[in-house]
């Protein structure tokens, strides 16, 4: 579809550049619905002429002379059919003969040739009306997807030199302070400066429950400030805000076609020339087998065959169904980056999940501290290094130490994937991480540490073990139900984590997950998922950390937890769950199944009706009136069926 004027889409992908023969290169979508009467006056005038002629001829039994009839019908035909005739001419010039425009042009001109003027006009008028409704339906669907998220305000109040200036968000620099009044939408990502504030985050998460933030917490573009005037420091440019990236993802999604769409595009290329030659056979072959053969009669049957054979209902209603699925997912806080991933979600056999921040809240609390140093000195040193990390465990340690920590000079911080941090704190080499980190640097530690079930952060200073902290996490409220619901759908859940095997097994037991692996490096996760894929399983991997990005990319469907998730994982993922609820995985699968069901209903409906009416037309039972109403009617039914997706309520 090229009717994208109302929704600016990105440059064509290579996949999109190979467009099917069926090319809806209409201008219908350029007009808002309220100006249809004004802009499409030629089409409506043509319809008025046709209706007036039919009223005079069939209702009032008033006979017009043949010359007047031909003149009126020719005028009506050109008014309605000029766009289709022009497109047919252009396509023939570039060597593309077999398309719907050529089919309609030949069928209607054939009707004029045999003297069925009003029927030829009717075919063209109702074909154009059908095309108009189809184009409007697709455009409205695209606009509804964009409207779900395009809530960025076009002005923002920035505080400069003590003065308040109202400017466009794109003119605000990173680091500046902006003010947001109660009831206003936040235009930019940043950190809250006000002590406490409450926000409506539904545009980003699909959740209408207010979220409370405190000073220093991240607030994102798209949130609505609910209570008092707040101040925040901008951390990201307007074009790079999370909401801007979300909008880009959703718009890009309409360009990524599902296998069913690609099949229909390829099918249309083969189908159209086949039906053209079948229509030609309907016209010519009876000459050799029918004693009473009359060319006019069989030409008429061939015209009926061509009209009903038009593939519009298939090539319009199917992408419309996928747009509906993407829109429905967006309303549930699920960003699907392409129609193809909706199909993948219907084929899953296994969901592989990370633990921290995915099945657990990722909100850790320091439980216990054991050290040979002064406890205050120990926590100051650890917190100073952990400030360099965004990992939930690091945040827990920094939060615990926040009230009493001293400032230390920190240099050369290095994150060692799946193990922890290394850096220079107050001139000393400090290691903070799991026991593998200490093993990596040949630091000995008490063996009883390996028997601690909770998450442990072991600490080494200048190649000497000095103590540890234990950290506890909570399982998300809907995690147990998610695993149970996936099992009902016949989908196995497997948990992979870099955390200690004992901790991973403890969480797995709580969630009734039979297969779980701990102590994994990022490359180990990749290996496990590759083994599952090699075994023929269709895999979705769900994660949130930077170290999950490689395995998210490897899975058939990579799913990122978008609220707490890292930017790298969100960019790599095929599906982003904005509210971090694992139950939305089940919702995404249900939306995929619903979308595929509606799409195949439309395929069966369209092909069933077309085959039946083509057979009736070839047999002389159906006429051109019945053919055009069947064609337009089945297209509109398919569109209405696709619209059901957008209004569907999921349990």
Automatic annotation (TrEMBL):
Residues 1-29 are annotated as: Disordered. Gene3D superfamilies: Calcium-transporting ATPase, cytoplasmic domain N, Calcium-transporting ATPase, cytoplasmic transduction domain A, HAD superfamily/HAD-like. Keywords: ATP-binding, Cell membrane, Hydrolase, Membrane, Metal-binding, Nucleotide-binding, Translocase, Transmembrane, Transmembrane helix. It catalyses: Zn(2+)(in) + ATP + H2O = Zn(2+)(out) + ADP + phosphate + H(+). Residues 1-15 have a biased composition (Polar residues). Pfam families: E1-E2_ATPase, Hydrolase. The chain crosses the membrane at residues 39-62, 68-85, 270-290, 302-323, 598-618, 624-643. The gene is cadA. It comes from Runella aurantiaca. This is P-type Zn(2+) transporter. Residues 152-251 form the P-type ATPase A domain. Its main location: membrane.
